[in-house]
Amino acid sequence: MSSAIETRGLSRRFGDRLAVDRIDMHVPERSIYGFLGRNGAGKTTTIRLLLGLLRPDAGQARIAGIDVARNRMAAARKVGALLEAQGFHPHLNGRENLDLSRRLLGLPATEVERVLEVVEMTPHARRRVGDYSLGMRQRLGLARAMLGAPPVLVLDEPTNGLDPEGIADMRRFLRALPERTNATVLLSSHLLGEIEQTATHVGILSQGRLVLEGALADLKAGLAAAVEVGTDAPERAMAIASAHGFEVERADEAVVVYIAADEEPRDATAALNRALCAAGVRVHALAPRQCSLETLYRNAAQPALA
Amino acid sequence: MSTHTCVFAPPRLRTALAVEAYKLRRSLALLLAAIAPLLIAVFMFFNLTRFDKPGSWAMALQSSAAIWAFFMLPMCTTALTALMAQAEHGPRTWEHLRALPVPRWHLYAAKAICALAMVVLISLLLAVLAPLAVLAAGWAKPAAAVADAPDFAAYLLLLGRIFLAAWLMVAVQLWMALRHASFVPALALGIGGTFFAVVATSAKVGVLMPWQTPVNQLASDPSRAALALAVGFFGGCAAFTLMLWRMSRREMPA
Fold first, then answer.
1. Count of the separate structural domains present in chain B
2. Does B101 fall in a domain?
3. CA of B28, closest CA in chain A: separation in Å?
4. How big is the A-B interface in CB pairs under 8 Å?
5. B25 has a chain A CB within 8 A of its CB
6. Domains plus CATH for chain A?
7. C-beta of residue A248 within 8 angstroms of C-beta of residue A242
């Protein structure tokens, strides 16, 4: 699958701080790529490099095969962006604000109505943007990013500040975008839950480095199967599980027991249960551990933080 | 699946200009453009009606040009350029604009051309309102009515020279306003520049100062006026060019 967005050795420094450190990113076409990292990890800096708002110190960024640094205008025609700071003129209404961008892009007037309809903002288009809620502004921002039907959409924290209903609405729009518009979506966020429900691929950034990247389903499948054991004697349970060849770790009050890839999880769990009961360890819970994006993120990001 | 496709028309400076003019709709900048010359006209009216003997067109129009060049033009320039810059700084639209497939110098050139156009607009309004104020004063107090014939051509020429000499001041103010997200540096520069222009009018080096080049068009020495015009206009062209180059290349802080 070819890449809609690709970077090679992309780096950017601000004084002594290396904000983006040799990133090699590949965003497949028609994917929803969740770009994850804690605040200050370098997500926004990377996005600004992709959009040509910053010049890289090293490396290369390509949008739809076009080198951003060498041909900014051509690359910019392939991408629509929703940036963190929304940027609308509050004294103009929604339609007028979109019309400003539409004119600069040299697009027909019908394009404004089309994007308003996609984000379901047509009924509010004649109201001043100054009177909009944050959710409405975000939707208008998404509409503006979609002007001209660019093949790539870059959305920086699109659910920032939204209430649960607004987040659900935004999630619904975003999930439908590749199907509805044929676009590739790069979606940056620090909210793991939102990315997990929306993205098909993820890239995890930690201290400026891309520490993990791939299709979300594949990454989760690669996680080792595990069971969580709830017990009043976690130390004893850990010792017994280790003695039977299991890899173990403590997770709050529970014990996490990892099952080897060549073992059948059900058989291994039953064997573990027998061993613990035979040793007199009282087990009050035994459940398979969910392979979540949070696990992936912690596994990927924490070694970099050590 | 959508098969919608769009073709972007090539970017044109006139498009960026039209968009800039569109933003001025219902904005404070247009209100300022109307109020500034009106204030001068109102002041002229009340000033002329103080006198009990006939005045002259030349003196009345000269005095309106002096108020404009000395004080109102620098203050309007400070306010207008700050308003135009804040139109993007305030709602933080610069990142969005600079990410568009539009040459960045178009965006800044549109700001510059609109700022100059606003000064032209105010000048033209003054050219209409000032004579009306003189006529109104004569109607309100016949004893103070002007006795001689007006020389509107000379008045328009003077306003034109003041406008051209103001290019350097407009460029410096606009650059400062665009460069900083806060309006304070531009405001401080405008107030400081106007202050020194007022207190140091007769200074020899004043002819080189951006805030004095317009008022030097009223100088009795024609060579001083010509030098100030050259400094203001050609210096302004150079300053605008440098501003476009620097601002287009500049990276915006997050």
1. 1
2. yes
3. 11
4. 105
5. yes
6. 3-214 (3.40.50.300), 224-290 (3.30.70.980)
7. yes
